[in-house]
Design goal:
The protein has about 475 residues and is α/β, with parallel strands linked by helices. Strands 10-11-12-13-9-14 form a six-stranded antiparallel sheet.
Length: about 475
């Protein structure tokens, strides 16, 4: 067991490194366990902490983008990993692009020199008894540790293959060309928006899907037979199209029980859109997980009725990724409901993207520090919008029924403005002015939350029974 004022962290990626350095700054002793380089993954190449295995870009620095706003908030929260990224920055236009070796070497040296952190190179096959314990083992968690976690929280709460459908901003759609309705439901009423296609439109979509350029599999991971078998339950939409010209029309695009009020007839096929949140600011294309390149997704899906000006908040993908069903396994204090005192963070908890992982590591450390605040960040802020996507029940007003964030299937989260609560009134001037208003509100509410941290700090380092959302 941990001694008083100490925390064990498993995993030295972005989130684990951020959490370790953040806790150390507060005087908390940290035992950081990292299996590399003795046990490598299929993606890592070194034993350095915070190694970037894919792109060396942490996305936009523009504060009027969601990722730029998140970086601004993390800087205000004193993120060590973001500071290291800024120090290792190389030219990349408006994006934060880093020299990946300099970046990871810097953080490895900083952790190694920290008197409050003990770094132990050790692979764990079982979840240790230490509490509090942060699990930051990432999307390539060792199979033995994964199996132990499965047995403890239930096999239906951990996913291994990330099937993501594209997400589109509601405001960018021409809703006059879509209709609302559920299969066999009352016309004009229901949870789905439907994009009607006649036979010609359907054939064009199928042909585009078949001809579209695809992302090649990750060598040594996604091209293995056992991985390909695992994809059978969530095949890419273009693979379904390959199995027959009408497969999609009898599968995810089946129009049965739906009548287009514009024609009074059942379409040949429909693309159904499901809300990402209760405010319906963003919708995903149901069943359209895909291996198509992002540029191809943009080109093909913009041909759909009502999509000519579509703004995609997230593109579809399908790849190896171990992640938790966060809305159903996390408590409001960010710990596992079935394993009190265990705090998953980073990509394992269901976020995608470097900056999102850093943010989760920083937030986990904040609530495990000696003066944990009694409030979660407001959902109107970047860090709050990210948390609300993971733990929607903690942000839902008492008495309100669960929304689609809690009842629908969960996919890992990239931060985008569709996750933010809508503005109370419509902003004139189009998308640009609306985003400026979202950013202004976020900055105001983030500043208020930061000012309240000292006043709201929970006096006991034990976890509060229920954190409440900050006031926006």
């Amino acid at each position: 067991m941990n001694g008083p004022g100490s925390v064990t962290i498993v995993g030295g990626g972005l989130a684990g490194t951020e959490a370790a350095l953040s806790l150390s700054r507060e005087g908390v002793r940290v035992l950081l366990l990292e299996m590399r380089p003795e046990s490598q993954t299929g993606a890592h190449r070194t034993g350095n902490l915070a190694e970037l295995v894919c792109s060396n870009s942490l996305k936009s620095l523009d504060p009027e983008t969601a990722h730029g706003l998140l970086k601004e908030e993390l800087q205000a929260m004193g993120s060590f990993v973001l500071e290291a990224a800024m120090e290792a920055r190389i030219p990349g236009g408006g994006a934060l692009v880093v020299d990946r070796e300099r970046f990871s070497r810097h953080l490895t040296a900083r952790v190694g020199a920290d008197p409050h952190i003990t770094l132990r190179r050790e692979r764990l096959d079982l979840i240790p008894p230490d509490r509090p314990l942060i699990l930051a083992t990432g999307p390539l968690t060792h199979p033995a540790l994964t199996q132990d976690l499965l047995e403890r929280i239930g096999s239906d709460r951990l996913s291994f293959y990330d099937a993501i459908s594209p997400v589109v901003e509601a405001e960018s759609l021409d809703l006059s060309k879509l209709f609302r309705g559920d299969r066999y439901g009352s016309p004009g009423v229901g949870d789905y928006l439907n994009v009607p296609l006649d036979s010609e439109g359907y054939r064009t979509l199928v042909e585009d899907l078949l001809r579209g350029e695809r992302v090649p599999p990750h060598e040594g991971v996604e091209d293995r037979p056992e991985v390909l078998r695992a994809f059978e339950a969530c095949q890419p939409v273009e693979s379904l199209a390959e199995s027959g010209p009408e497969t999609l029309a009898y599968g995810p695009m089946r129009p049965v029980g739906l009548v287009d009020p514009g024609t009074g007839r059942t379409p040949h096929a429909v693309v159904q859109l499901r809300a990402e949140n209760r405010e319906e600011t963003a919708f995903n294309l149901v069943g359209f997980q895909t291996k198509l390149r992002y540029s191809e997704q943009d080109r093909i899906f913009r041909k759909l009725p009502g999509f000519s000006e579509a703004h995609f908040l997230r593109y579809g993908s399908l790849h190896r990724n171990t992640f938790l069903d966060a809305p159903r396994v996390l408590g409001p204090d960010l710990s596992l409901l079935r394993l009190p005192g265990v705090y998953p963070t980073g990509q394992m908890v269901g976020v995608e993207g470097y900056t999102e992982s850093i943010a989760l590591g920083r937030l986990t450390a904040l609530y495990l520090g000696p003066r944990p605040p009694g409030t979660l960040p407001p959902a109107t802020t970047a860090v709050g919008a990210l948390l609300r996507a993971l733990v929607p029940s903690a942000y839902r007003p008492e008495g309100e029924p669960p929304g689609p964030e809690e009842t629908g299937p969960f996919s890992p989260v990239n931060l985008h403005f569709g996750l933010f609560p809508p503005l109370p009134s419509r902003v004139r001037g189009g998308k640009s002015e609306r985003r400026k208003a979202l950013v202004a509100r976020a900055r105001r509410d983030f500043a208020s939350w930061r000012e309240s941290l000292n006043a709201d700090a929970h006096p006991d380092p034990a976890r509060p029974s229920r954190l409440r959302p900050g006031r926006g």
